[in-house]
Amino acid sequence: MAYLNENYLKLKAGYLFPEIARRVNAFCEKDPEGKARLIRCGIGDVTEALPPAVVDAMHKAVDEMASRDTFRGYGPEQGYLFLRQAIADNDFRAHDVEVDADEIFVSDGSKCDCGNILDILGHQNRIGIPDPVYPVYVDTNVMAGHTGTANDIGAYAGLHYLPGNAENGFVPDPPKEKLDVVYLCFPNNPTGAVATRKQLKAWVDYALANDTLLLFDAAYEAYIQNKEIPRSIYEIPGARRCAIEFRSFSKSGGFTGVRCAFIVVPKELQAKTPDGKTAPLHGLWARRMSTKFNGVSYIVQRAAEALYSHQGKEQVAALVAHYMGNAKILCEGARKAGLKVFGGENAPYIWVKTPQGLSSWQMFDKMLTEANVVITPGSGFGSAGEGYFRISAFNSRANAEEVARRIQALK
Ligand SMILES: *Cc1c(COP(=O)(O)O)cnc(C)c1O
Predict the structure, then answer these.
(1) Predicted local confidence at residue 84, as pLDDT
(2) Is 389 in the pocket of ligand 1 (CB under 6 A)?
(3) How many H helices and E strands in the chain?
(4) What are the residue ranges of CATH 3.90.1150.10 in the chain?
(5) Does pTM surpass 0.70?
(6) Does 106 score more than 80 pLDDT?
(7) What architecture does CATH give domain 14-43+311-409?
(8) Ligand 1: which atom is nearest the Cα of residue 185?
(9) Burial of 66 by CB count in 10 Å (0-12 exposed, 13-18 middle, 19+ buried)?
């Protein structure tokens, strides 16, 4: 019999979203009326249709694939240059940020990229992970064997947790100790927190001083409203020597079901070998992609390119404005209900302190049974999320307004 990867056995059994689904299903069976009123603000998935510019580009690409003369087979593993150039020009060059098309690697999602990046990093790294945060960073490190087992609050031995809390505004400071790899996610899922230029500079300075690699997840960059907040880690001087940036079209262009994202690996970014030499990570990632990946579909890359057209940009801005309008309504509703609210200003997530000392799961059950609204318990994003819950602004306007009303009607 084959041996399995025993690291998977260390993963906490009740992963957040299956447990939410279990409780919601049980509730719906017991309470058909509640089921009919149910509004889901749980999973961070977009709800609105694809921008028309994207739909047109996809139709056109399908037609190209239908004709022998314009058909495309395997594309470049790194992504077509037309897309990488559009990304470099619009997301970086237009903001005076130096990122070359050669440094961009197109993929089928940031979730995959966040997990796959561990392929090119050593197993001996001391790894820092914010808490609360997107669970993928922790779980992929568990799977890769970088941790011991979890304790009863779900913290894994061997990981260095960087706690976010109301005092630090859910933006952890660089630690005293030296870490080799640190994950950062701004705007943050789940807290909606953003890091100021000063805070990001502190992280880049820490990374340069300690030879730390920053893994910067900017999946929600499109939601930043405040012009002073950096959109890319590369806006900070020196970041090209210490950071990989992850971007996704999932939340900006509504591509959660289309699947397209990219990472930036600057050419000058180095990591070390066990004998103390250094080598660029760019070549390792290029090698990894060409060995384990065969590129994103041509149709999808044309769809992503269309997000950078004049119309595409306007349509993305309208989508973001829609969700951020919901966020404002939800924030106001929760504040009027007397709740302590974070986030929601530069991110589509509202992060709320549970009232009366309720635990995150107690609040989940209360919202489910009394308001018939599905939220996400903060503790599912790490032990520092206990005592909070997340409301997603990904919804119709009517649902956002109804959720705001129901929160205020809660006893
Ligand atoms: C949604 C999300 C992503 C994007 O994932 P995809 O696989 O590109 O859909 C990445 N990071 C965070 C923190 C997210 O919430």
Answers:
(1) 98
(2) no
(3) 12, 15
(4) 14-43+311-409
(5) yes
(6) yes
(7) Alpha-Beta Complex (3.90)
(8) 13
(9) exposed
